[in-house]
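Re: the request from the purification team.
They wanted to know what the chain is likely to look like in 3D before they choose a buffer screen. I agreed to run a prediction and write the result into the notebook, where they can find it.
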Amino acid sequence: MHRIISPSVLAADFSNLQVMCDMINKSEAEWLHIDVMDGVFVPNISFGFPVMEAIKKHCIKPLDVHIMIVHPEKYVKRFAEYGASTLTFHYEAAENPDAVIEQIRAEGMSPGITINPDIPVSVLEKYIEKVDLVLLMSVFAGYGGQKFIEESYERLEELKKMVDRLNPACRIEVDGGINASNAGRLFDCGANVLVAGSSVFNAENPLKAIRDLINA
């Protein structure tokens, strides 16, 4: 199975985004993960469109955008304008997930849906046929550097069975506490894409860290 690593900008050095983008461009990472937080749906605030614009200017890899915001429908068009390739929103934050999915696709992006670790995987069943990506959070959304939640393996296996049955083309992404010690098992349990923040950007050699995650 093809393995994709999507390094998370949240863990990067914001004082020099161009250097970060140059590293990602040279690396074996296929996507760049961008976490946008509003301080309402999650306690933290990350960054907005100007930072995305700066990243898009320098990064040649597709932008894998995960929005942790209330009323995601209000911002879909702007995320398309600022270069998102995939736009993933929280099931818990949307009043009408079906409408948000349609809106994302209409703007030319790949729609993704995600849930926090305390939400049953079963709630995603009715949306899997309509999205290109399901993001399974293996920590609670809103903070970088959290410890991986071990129950995520079982949740991933449950999700994989659902995706295989309903929409085998849909990719499964896992985000939170990912490192070389759990990446291999996550890929084996059905993940196609792993988001890695600290384990890439805090590594002595980020290019090697990305390669090690792919080959874990």
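For the purification team: Strands lie at 4-7, 32-37, 63-68, 84-90, 110-115, 133-137, 171-175, 193-196.
Please add any questions underneath this entry.
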